[in-house]
């Protein structure tokens, strides 16, 4: 059993979304290594990705707290520590700005475009009121931006992209949304009055979509070339399978919000490629 101090530390790291940050960096590393496993990974790009992912998640929750009283433990944590989190954002932004000078040109161009999209996203997020239908689909937009951040930087540096690289990126897009649907499903069970994607789509449709992603990732394996990309698809299938298991055994996993950190750690699974390659 973990001691109270260690458990408290792990819970704090989870509330800070650092498990999400690790998952983003690990998955981006996978895209940098495509298509043959010999791709050169640009470390500053991964560092900036981690920083930007962290900033986005902190900002997203701080903005949520401006619109309504925090309901879950993570939003309450951000509300209680908002001053220090705002200082953290400033420091992270300065570090990321300095590291921009070490990025490949293609990643810089990609990043400039993405920053514009992010400003538009947060502007729309702030302007829409709590009763708007936009609140239901905020999870989709956040997940889509996350996918673009994770895969886009790496793929933007490649002169040519193979068909299976596009499919792998699309699989990742589906995996992120599968995870969002599972989280949304759990949240709806805990807070029936909440406005989220599961409530908008209905629990039955959510179930179909969650299993549908798993089936699609399995089918996509037939399009992978033998070698590194085949292993990438196998990892993505494993990711979809693990997320599906979390959903299937939701009654047991829901205890103490275990589904959250388990769901985030699914995106650490590309580390298996270090062993398989």
Automatic annotation (TrEMBL):
Please give the start and end residues of each transmembrane region: 12-31, 43-63, 83-101, 107-124, 166-186, 206-226, 232-249
| Source organism superkingdom | Bacteria
The alphabetized UniProt keywords are: Membrane, Transmembrane, Transmembrane helix
Protein name, as recorded = UbiA prenyltransferase family protein
Q: Which organism is it from?
A: Emticicia oligotrophica (strain DSM 17448 / CIP 109782 / MTCC 6937 / GPTSA100-15)
């Amino acid at each position: 059993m973990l001691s109270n101090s260690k458990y408290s530390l792990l819970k704090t790291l989870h509330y800070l979304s650092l498990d999400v940050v690790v998952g983003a960096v690990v998955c981006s590393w996978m895209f940098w290594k495509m298509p043959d496993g010999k791709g050169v990974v640009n470390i500053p790009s991964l560092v900036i990705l981690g920083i930007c992912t962290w900033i986005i998640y902190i900002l997203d929750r701080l903005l949520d707290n401006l619109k309504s009283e925090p309901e879950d433990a993570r939003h309450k944590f951000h509300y209680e520590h908002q001053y220090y989190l705002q200082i953290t954002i400033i420091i992270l932004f300065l570090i990321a700005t300095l590291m921009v000078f070490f990025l490949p040109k293609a990643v810089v161009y990609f990043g400039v475009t993405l920053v514009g999209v992010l400003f538009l996203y947060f502007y729309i997020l702030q302007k829409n009121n709590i009763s708007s239908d936009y609140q239901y689909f905020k999870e989709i937009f956040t997940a889509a931006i996350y996918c673009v951040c994770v895969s886009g930087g790496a793929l933007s540096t490649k002169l040519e992209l193979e068909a299976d690289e596009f499919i792998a990126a699309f699989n990742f897009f589906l995996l992120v949304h599968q995870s969002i649907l599972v989280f949304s499903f759990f949240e709806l069970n805990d807070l029936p009055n909440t406005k989220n994607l599961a409530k908008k789509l209905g629990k039955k449709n959510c179930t179909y979509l969650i299993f549908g992603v798993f089936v699609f990732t399995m089918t996509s394996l037939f399009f992978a070339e033998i070698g590194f990309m085949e292993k990438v698809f196998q990892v993505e299938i494993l990711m979809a399978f693990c997320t599906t298991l979390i959903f299937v055994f939701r009654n047991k996993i829901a205890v103490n919000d275990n589904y959250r950190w388990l769901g985030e750690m699914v995106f650490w699974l590309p580390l298996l490629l270090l062993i398989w390659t």
